[in-house]
């Protein structure tokens, strides 16, 4: 035991442990917030193992470029900083997937199925079409190797923005503006996907309204529910068929934008 304590007190070992803690803080949001990992519903032990494996794999790279780090007492602010950096990357890299989920949720709301929520594999609650479109996006993302591209960009970010590095004020402003732009682009992407469904459902509502005016005795609210549901599903499939060719480029752009955000955190 004394030998082990002595080893832990060695400066080089202590540095690796400190860098490992900071890398773990940056890795944890990647494990928890990206849909393509889908491990939040898994046992805590499995989630911990995934985060630990990524930390062990990335720590040597991070240690090779990390600046001198403070002692244990000064580590807390750096851990918080790294967790925020990891969260920015995780959310930015997975925004197209979230946009697909928002798109399906919008259509479900318009077709009157917004209350029929289901549970995703990551433990979140989503509408039926929202869950379907999100999981289809995740399947396509993983099939195209997007998770490998995201991990490679994440590792590159450890070099461009080393753990424990100083963040310039201009870099923080750039990250904030860049993140806001990415969220706006994702919302616009979801709205563009949902536009055909919105038009189709409006036409259905107009047709049902005309029928209800001509035959008031027919309960059009209930009679039109199957029609709304069918039209919504058809519009979703149409939108996906039109957008599927552009999704790979959107996935690559999101990962590239996430990597760019990390680059803005680098010291001047």
Helix/strand layout:
Blueprint: H1 2-8, H2 11-33, H3 44-65, H4 75-93, H5 95-110, E1 118-119, E2 125-126, H6 128-143, H7 146-160, H8 169-214, H9 220-223, H10 225-243, H11 247-264
Antiparallel strand pairs: 1-2
Q: Please state the CA-atom Rg, rounded to the nearest Å.
A: 23 Å
- Largest sheet, described in full? 2 strands, antiparallel
Q: What's the overall average pLDDT, rounded?
A: 78
What letter string, H or E per element, gives the SSE order? HHHHHEEHHHHHH
**Strand numbers in spatial order across the main sheet:** 1-2
Number of helices: 11
Please tell me what the overall shape is: elongated
Structural category = mainly alpha
Number of domains: 1
Q: N- to C-terminal separation? A: 44 Å
Roughly how much helix do the residues carry, as a percent range?
A: over 70%
Poorly predicted tracts of residues: 1-9
Fraction of residues in β-strands: under 5%
Let me know the number of strands. 2
